[in-house]
Amino acid sequence: MVNRKELDPEKSPGARFGQRLRMLREEHGWTQDELGKHMGCSGTHVSAVETGRRSPTLRFARHADKTFGTGGRLERQSLALRQTALLEGFPEYMTHEARAAEIRLYEVGVMPGILQTPGYASALTARTVERGAITPEQGDERNALVAVRQDTLARTPVPLVFVVLDESCLRRPVGDASVMDGQLARLVEFARLPNTVLQIAPFSMGDRRPLSLPLYILTMENRALVSYAESAQRGRLERETSSVVPLLTAYHQLQAEALSQAESVAMIKQLRKGTP
């Protein structure tokens, strides 16, 4: 093909979207103009999205999903790269999370997005908007993203999901009492699922805690490892196995020191009853 631009999917989330769009188009044997006719846009527009010169709108991604029969994958990918209020690296992390065979999370202070109830997510976002940290529009994007991430967990085959929550996640009030009760009930439901493990890292662990900041580790279908770690101001995505393995080791050490799932569920139920 004349002037065919090579794509680097590792360059950015937009480049990965463009590569996937081109791959799907070529699998169908279509030119950019032919795909544009199927989607109701110009071939020039398709070219701009494929090469990363234009970001895909939600409407574009939805039409592409309908055209290719990809079941919302392109919509989720486009939503992830539109998240302007997220820390660097997290939009890319989400594209991997949606395909991972195993998901391991450690969270401090707040419930992880994949476990948040709509009430909890809305209350948490509302406070962030009130502080002026994000705009109302960015808040709406965050809440929509929580739902999208949770939807991806219902894929087949379902991923294995391991969650360790610092006790602070349970103790920190978000919203009113009914919001917190609903969120704690959601944790109990999560622990009952056949593909999940939920553990609490209690305050009593003290200095035996090998991790102090949130950490997400993914095992992909080909057994490749991806990690995402964040502080208050920045996030870091890591795909080099030599860098992820020490984090995975620390995560296993954390699991060994944390409460068992049965003990963790018992703690959650006690908090729901209002007992220490």
The overall pLDDT, averaged over residues, is: 88
Overall helicity: 40-55%
Q: And the CATH topology of the largest domain? A: Endonuclease, Chain A
> What percentage of the residues does DSSP assign to strands (E)?
5-15%
| Main structural class | alpha/beta
- Strand runs, count: 6
Structure annotation, total helices? 12
Number of domains: 2
Rounded to the nearest angstrom, the distance between the terminal CA atoms is: 69 Å
Q: What is the CA-atom radius of gyration, in angstroms?
A: 20 Å
Going across the biggest sheet, name each strand in turn.
Answer: 3-2-1-4-5-6
Please describe the biggest sheet, giving its number of strands, its sense, and whether it closes into a barrel. Answer: 6 strands, mixed
Rough shape?
globular
Regions with little confidence, pLDDT below 50 for 5+ residues: none
In words, what does this structure look like?
The protein is of the alpha/beta class and 276 residues long. The protein folds into two domains: 13-81, 434 Repressor (Amino-terminal Domain), CATH 1.10.260; 90-273, Endonuclease, Chain A, CATH 3.30.870. The protein has helices at 13-27, 32-39, 43-50, 58-68, 73-81, 90-97, 118-130, 136-152, 167-171, 177-192, 241-257, 261-273, and strands at 102-107, 160-166, 196-201, 215-219, 225-230, 235-238. It is globular and about 65 Å long. The protein starts with 12 loop residues before the first helix and ends with a helix. The relative contact order is 0.11.
